[in-house]
Amino acid sequence: xxxxxxxxxxxxxxxxxxxxxxxxxxxxxxxxxxxxxxxxxxxxxxxxxxxxxxxxxxxxxxxxxxxxxxxxxxxxxxxxxxxxxxxxxxxxxxxxxxxxxxxxxxxxxxxxxxxxxxxxxxxxxxxxxxxxxxxxxxxxxxxxxxxxxxxxxxxxxxxxxxxxxxxxxxxxxxxxxxxxxxxxxxxxxxxxxxxxxxxxxxxxxxxxxxxxxxxxxxxxxxxxxxxxxxxxxxxxxxxxxxxxxxxxxxxxxxxxxxxxxxxxxxxxxxxxxxxxxxxxxxxxxxxxxxxxxxxxxxxxxxxxxxxxxxxxxxxxxxxxxxxxxxxxxxxxxxxxxxxxxxxxxxxxxxxxxxxxxxxxxxxxxxxxxxxxxxxxxxxxxxxxxxxxxxxxxxxxxxxxxxxxxxxxxxxxxxxxxxxxxxxxxxxxxxxxxxxxxxxxxxxxxxxxxxxxxxxxxxxxxxxxxxxxxxxxxxxxxxxxxxxxxxxxxxxxxxxxxxxxxxxxxxxxxxxxxxxxxxxxxxxxxxxxx
Length: 529
Description:
This protein is an alpha/beta fold. It has 17 helices and 12 strands. It has helices at residues 41-54, 58-73, 103-110, 112-156, 159-181, 197-206, 218-222, 232-244, 273-284, 289-292, 315-328, 349-364, 376-398, 406-430, 434-449, 470-476, 484-495; strands at 78-80, 86-88, 92-96, 191-192, 210-215, 264-271, 293-296, 344-347, 403-404, 467-468, 502-507, 510-515. A 5-stranded parallel beta sheet has the order 4-5-6-3-7, sandwiched between helices. α4 runs antiparallel to α5 (159-181), α4 runs parallel beside α11 and α15 packs across α17 (484-495). The protein is elongated. The two termini are 26 Å apart.
């Protein structure tokens, strides 16, 4: 620590250790490339086209594609890991990123076919839907009229009234039968954003049986009414049951209360890093909500997304959206109560072996000192997510039905494994002390950005010996380190034994920070001692 009132520039005697091989500031899990290459070709081509033009991070693009695929596939198939472990193929995705990362543009690319189908289907069904609602309203009025007459006759209590009352009761039963037989197919409502828990339950229970929450501003969803202190656990519990495909039965029957049975539901939101921690505090992990989600916190591409002329065509994305239309056009597997009863897709024998291997490899790392010790909750759901992803890939490749192939299961394992490792990285970072996070930020800035910055006079901020002024760190460095106390603490961390990222030197009266030459261009900078 920097002593009270003492400036780090008074520290003397800093030097490289012999044979400079800088250690790590921390031992965070590695940020590995997203395995986009394992996606089915029809999805991979579309994702790479969207990434190339929109310039959003690949993990964000992939999560958007996956959840839109999930929305299309979830009513068509459930997935069986064995004869007992059967679940929907719905997915939850939570991406941590700042506003402006272009999630809306990415989602709009992958949802174009879905939204076209939804619009066309609504226009097609609307006349019939309105007629059905009118008939339903008329039946209800006639039923109420009969009930009123029955009440009046009961009050009279005469023999003639009893005979007339029985006629009204018989007619009321006929009206009840007509109401039961009147089936009104709900109009598709696939996307939700700003909704309450009660509104979501009512709409799903009485409306179209498959949907998703999709938002580029997750605070609208998780920061609104649903996530007020008294409502947060209720919303998270409802979301968990929808992911599981379990019925939601109203135990407190209030007016208009509706049970949610035979529904499928996905979720795709982007939330800012600060708000992510609030979700954790409000029960996001304790409730199991985040354990079910594919988590990602990609490095921002802001600052490198220079204007690109729009391509004349994006054939991969066109194929993706046409495939959405094809799958959405398949009849929904519903019963006479308009509840989904999707067929179950099983893993092939080879795919099951691959899934078991993945399951066991994750389980081994959940124990003490294991790679996934910090994310046991998320690790416990990872193999299930792998099977869900494999099922979605199979549906998109060959349609519902049949068995899930080894290739798709291997792909599902790879994607689930990436998200599990990413979750470990996210929660490792969230548990780090501020001075370690600051030191990592400063090291990254010194090694990458500072080497390319120039002053107003055109001279390089960092000289050819990897030296930069501490004052210029305050002026040009990471925003949170434009504070002398935090800058000094970060510099001390980077100078410490076993880290050795920097040293402090004097050149005449000037005091400079010099970056360890082995960190700059693989050690090709001038290694002045």
